[in-house]
Amino acid sequence: MSYTQFNVMVWALRLVAAGIMLQTLFFKFTAAPESVYIFTKLGLEPWGRIGIGSLELIASILVLIPRTTSYGALLAVGVMAGALFSHLTQLGIVVQDDGGQLFILALIVFVACSLLLIIFRKQNFLHYILR
To answer: Using CA atoms, how far apart are residues 131 and 123, in angstroms rounded to an integer?
Structure first.
């Protein structure tokens, strides 16, 4: 794989992860009925919805900045692990007849950011954790 191809792949991972997280923020911050339902079922409404939305916003920004990609990817992996766990234990994969769309989007972000963590494992503190 050439440097250009590698760079395109890295930016595609960044844009996919950040794009999905940023797109869902609108629903969290405007208290869309679907988001309110999810966080009420988890017992986290409204502060959990706003807090997790804020963490996703921070992760999205950090993932897009080359020097902070590893920090954003680590934060996003943590948030998406929580989302996936919630889907598997309390919410179910299909939430309010969405066909599993939220679960699949969380899984895509989780995988993209996990790959970014592997790629940028030598960036910042992750060099010591992910050898």
So the answer is: 11
